[in-house]
Every structure is written in structure tokens, then in C-alpha cells.
Amino acid sequence: MIEQFLSGGIVTPLILILFIVMIAYSLFNVLREYERGVIFFLGRFQLVKGPGLIIVIPAIQQIVKVDMRTVVMDVPSQDVISRDNVSVRVNAVIYFRVVDAQKAIINVEDYLAATSQLAQTTLRSVLGQHELDEMLSNREMLNSDIQAILDARSDGWGIKVSDVEIKHVDLNESMIRAIAKQAEAERARRAKVIHASGEMEASEKLVEAAQKMATQPNAMLLRYLQTLTEIAGEKSSTIAFPLPMELMEGLFKRNGKNDKGSED
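The line above is the sequence of Band 7 protein; the predicted C-alpha cells follow.
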């Protein structure tokens, strides 16, 4: 039995079966729903196949699989000098996917590395054209600008950049203290403006009230009496209340008339 095995009676069918299995394994390829296969025929591009079961002839055809799902790539922190000469560290995240498998394989060596490097350089160049206040307050505008530039420049690689998000803008301690002082000064300025605006509105109302009281002399007397009533509830022992002599003119005139009447 051993001699028959060694002589080739059984080895030849086993080798043949193994060879057929290897041919079948390399001949049939199954691509998932999110995969595409770029087929090369003797080194030249032939077509893009998938998903599902595809046949690739060994030694004549070659297949390169491409993942068509959205890739979430974290852009490393970049040192950026803003337009107002402030040094910050900024990192972001980009979302992109392959829309043309042929371009992604043929036009660029490694589309993942190329997109990452392009995102880093674009992030530095775009943010360097803006001031620090714009980086902190207008992130949506900056995200849109970076996304548009990346999408346009990666179009030749079959890449579609769907979104870009700036995650962090890191400042040094001295700049954080300077921004805090600036914010405090801004709040103080707003408080003064609001106070001045209130004083102006109050003065306008006082002028209107004075004009109305001037038409009715007794109105001023009533206002004084109302003020005395409010002060009386303060439980103070002594009340000093100024009384203009103009308010007493009516009483003086009335007393004078009464005196003349009594003499008559």
C-alpha cells in the first residue's frame, strides 16, 4: 500500500484535486454589497465589477477590491498661525467615500493617505487666512470652505468629501487669559451702554412729565404730597422735605384776599 502510494497511484489524483480547488478558489470571487472589484486584463484596466459573485481568470486577470463605504478620518492636530498672528492647534474630522473605484485605484497610489495629507494642508492654508475670532465663532463657514476645497481637489481621485468638522481649537494659557479680559471688557462696555440708554429714556420721560405738570400747577403739589406719603412709611424720625415757594403762592394770594375781606 505504501509502495503504491509512493509510486504515484494515489498522489496524482490528490494533486489534481488540490490543483482544481486552487483554480476554483482563485477563479470565483464574492464581493459584498459595499465592495467593488477593479479588473485588470494583462495589466490593463478592463472594467469594474460587483457586488456579488464574479469570475476572475487566474494569471490573466487581476482584481483590486475597493471599499465604497463612508470613511471617517481624524485629521491630526495642526499648528496654525492665524491672520492676526495667533498660534493655535486645530484638529478636525472629515467624512468621505469612494464614488469612482477606477479613479481611486488608477489615478492615485493610496487614496486614503493622499486624502489625509490633502486634508492637513488644506486645513492649515484655509485657517491661516482667517482671524482667531472667526475660528472660534464661524466654524460652520470654515467647515464649508474646507469641504468645498477638499471635494474639488479630490474629485480626480474618485473621492467625494461629504462633510468636514473642526473639533478643537486649542489656545495657550496667555491667549486664554487675554480672551477672558477682552470678554470682561466687552461685558462692561455693554453694561455702560445699557445704563446710558436707560438714563436717556428716563430723561425723556421726565421732560414729558414736567411739561404736563407745568400746564397744571396743582399737579406738582399733588406729586409732592404723594412723595410725602411714601416717605412717611419709612419710619424715620425726621423728614426734611423741600417745598418750593411757588406752590405756596396760591395760599398767600388766598390769605391776602381773606384779610382784605375781613377789613371790609
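Note on the example: The radius of gyration is 44 Å. The longest strand covers residues 87-98.
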